[in-house]
Design goal:
The protein is mainly alpha-helical. It has a single domain, classed as Amino acid/polyamine transporter I (Up-down Bundle), CATH 1.20.1740. The protein is globular, with a radius of gyration of 21 Å.
Amino acid sequence: MPQISPGIPKQRIGLYSATAIVIANMIGTGVFISLGFQVIDIHSGFALIMLWVVGGITALIGALCYGEIGSAFTRSGGEYNYLSELYHPAVGFLSGFVSSTVAFAAPVAAVALALGTYASHVLDGWNPKFVAAGVVILLTGVHAITLKTGSKVQNIFTTLKVALVLFLVIAGLAHGRSGDTSFMPHAGSFGEITSAAFAISLYWVSYAYSGWNAAAYISNEIENPQKNLPRALLIGTVVVTVLYVLLNFIFLYTAPQGKLVLQPDVGFVSATYIFGVWGGKAIAIIIAILLVSSVSSMIIAGPRVTMVMGEDIHLLRFFARKNRNGIPSAAVIFQSVISLFFIFTATFEQVIMYISFTLSIFTFLTVLGVYILRARQKDKAPAYSYRTWGYPFTPAIFLSLNAWILYYGITTKPVPSLEGLATVVCGLIIYFINKKITPNPNHESIQK
């Protein structure tokens, strides 16, 4: 099938903007909501903090591996491009199908709904769903027009978001303990760390950390991607890991666990103990405003997957179209329409297990691809400069942790896990339909 050359984008972003996209993708609803669901089955403060440490280590190792793969295959598209090159076009298509249909669109909806929930503490009578929809529509309009304006908006909101997290940490420490959680390890702590509940809670953590690979989806639009892509992934992941551990410590340090259970707005609960009722409301509205950057970053990154798929798949060629600024506006609008559907039909809780299980499959395959890439380069000098630190041990750690999580996901939460697998099967059916109706359906990567 003839390829649509992506060319060189008219507007390219630097290391700071790429790192900002990673940070903004990661710091979203997860860190402001997940703890309320983790404290249901895990009560040790040490085990709860270890959730975020383990999640950060896993994300960091993933970023190291993605850095090598991304520097080898610099075309935009993330796992869609990587898995097509490393395994088979069908595997890449399945990843891209999940990414373009639900993996970005559903989290956009979840973040927007959380934004509406936090805003509802101040905007009495406002429907969170309509607030969420309004934000998605507004940002779609911005990012469907120009990358330059979008990246400036991204930088501003991401900087403010990091500042807010640091402010909450400092204010919480200055306020002092008003929670009842002990952070000292004991025999029960280690039992919780090796439990099924810990593995399942890592789905919430992995959702909170999701986005560490965000810059990989727009690598073709980053200046000097072989150098700046690995840096953006690593810097962004390290920064967010430190912030997440500190922020969850503050949530537990300032609020009693009983007040956090099943609360979808633990940031508001903690802020109320630190600043009082009105101070808590002020922080809630600030969090709502800053969650705009998370919605924004996913509206930037996700459509690039759909765009690259459109370049390769005959049925999806419409999504490869770009406006005069090189923006895949059709793909941007398509993703946002799906997000609006999720906003009005689903809840945050319903999305997490489904998305986390499905995406874990493809991140597992991508990291496994580091071994395949090295095997191919065994007898010749690599065409890329970045190499995964700690190879071959670091990818093995990532794969072991993900296999553990996937096992407990499918054995203890079979319904959302099977729904995720059903989505993959749907993608496989579409792939073979396309292969049958396309004169030359074989994928020919621009990399070759």
